[in-house]
Write the structure tokens for this entry.
Amino acid sequence: MIATSDLSVFIGRLRIVRGVTFKAQPGEVTAIIGPNGSGKTTLLKALSGDAAYTGSAGIDGIEIASMKPWQAAGLRAVLPQSTSLSFPFTVREIVRLGLTGGSAGPGRSGDRVAEALARVDLEGFAGRFYQELSGGEQQRVQLARVLCQVWDPVVDGRPCWLFLDEPVSSLDIRHQLAVMDVARTYAESGGGVIAVLHDLNLTAMYADEVLVMRKGEMAAFGAPRSVLDDRLLEDVFECRLRVGALPAGGVPFVLPQSAG
Ligand code: ADP
Ligand code: MG
């Protein structure tokens, strides 16, 4: 389990996130939503060990700030919001970077790269140059790298975690669903997923729990049905929204309303 208590996160001397207390369980997809600049990426950076914080943040009771990089690398893999590269790496080279955590035995690494690329619908892309791919294809290469790093959702009885910052932001609808299915499968296999999402409908479809950020603070935390509420979303996103629910299963959906 990932648990934070009164977590505040700093960039330099600036406190960007304040007072966040929540829990994310393995076996579940936890979504973080909120407007641009509300602190989603900064919160994920603290959980990744990449930003200074006060309060506490732990994975299975181990304080994140006290983890050694190799220890953290075996427990969680991070898909950043954007990744730019200035060297002509091939797709295979990028995905193999995920293997340096050492979870694949010798001889398995080639298979694993191919398997990871297949999971993100990029079979046959291993020899291509990363820089020559579309933004959406690059995003899926990065996801394949991240999957390689924590390939087994549970290792020696301990769940591993995927931290995904806007994993579907550049993807067409089919690949959005495919990537969210990868996340859900990972969780169903015993791992944990924390994903920053902008699409409220994907959030409703895939998230077990939703953390709503607003101006650096937690505005709400709970199941989609309780959090995806007209008033709360209008307040947080500062625009007119209506949440509906389909009769089948009562999955909520959100439609923007034009002004007036
Ligand atoms: P989100 O991911 O929700 O869009 P971020 O966590 O990236 O938001 O940023 C939250 C706030 O922190 C924003 O107001 C942003 O301008 C500020 N911020 C982010 N990174 C830095 C930085 N390196 N220096 C100063 N301010 C930053
Ligand atoms: Mg962000």
Q: What stands out?
A: The pocket of adenosine-5'-diphosphate (ligand 1) is lined by residues 11, 14, 16, 34, 36-42 (CB under 6 Å). Residues 2-82+153-242 form a domain with the Rossmann fold fold (CATH 3.40.50.300). Residues 94 and 145 are 7 Å apart (CA to CA).
